[in-house]
């Protein structure tokens, strides 16, 4: 497992060995997802996208457009993010289904 590129520090059971005709090919993620390898600058980029497996910090543009500021694993459903299907209808937060 020491040779496996594991940027997210996932547990060893995230990867499984793969064989073809008895030949070991390496360890791969269970779903077949590809871990984007690091480039010479230590960044993980592919097709114009940068991948963060650990410690992503949003910049100002991301905070404004793509990040639900204030949400976290303890409180993912913020009042400021309540959608409205009908202007005259607003369900209380307690009525939301968390399942």
Give an account of the 3D structure.
With 99 residues, this protein is mainly beta. The protein has one domain. The protein is 6% helix and 17% strand. The protein contains 1 helix and 4 strands.
Give the biggest beta sheet: 2 strands, antiparallel
Helices, by number, come to 1
Please give the oligomerization state of what you see. Answer: single chain
Strand content: 15-25%
* Strand segment tally: 4
Mean pLDDT: 80
Low-confidence stretches: none
Distance between the termini: 36 Å
SS-derived structural category: mainly beta
Radius of gyration: 20 Å
Number of domains: 1
Shape: elongated
**Spatial order of the strands forming the largest sheet:** 1-2
Q: Could you spell the SSE succession in H and E letters?
A: EEEEH
Helix fraction, binned, reads under 10%
Keywords for this structure?
99 residues, 1 helix, mainly beta
Topology:
Blueprint (H helix, E strand, L loop, with lengths): L14 E6 L2 E7 L15 E2 L2 E2 L9 H6 L34
Antiparallel strand pairs: 1-2, 3-4
Nutshell version of this structure?
The chain has one domain (1-71). The chain is built from 1 helix and 4 strands; from the N terminus they run E-E-E-E-H. The protein has one helix at residues 60-65, and strands at 15-20, 23-29, 45-46, 49-50.
């Amino acid at each position: 497992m020491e040779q496996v590129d594991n940027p997210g520090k996932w547990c060893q059971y995230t990867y499984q060995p793969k064989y073809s005709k008895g030949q070991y090919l390496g360890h791969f993620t269970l779903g077949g997802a590809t871990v984007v390898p690091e480039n010479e600058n230590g960044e993980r980029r592919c097709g114009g996208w940068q991948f963060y497996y650990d410690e992503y910090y949003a910049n100002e543009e991301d905070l404004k457009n793509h990040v639900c500021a204030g949400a976290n694993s303890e409180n993912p459903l913020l009042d400021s993010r309540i959608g409205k299907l009908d202007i005259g209808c607003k369900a209380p937060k307690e009525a939301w289904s968390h399942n």
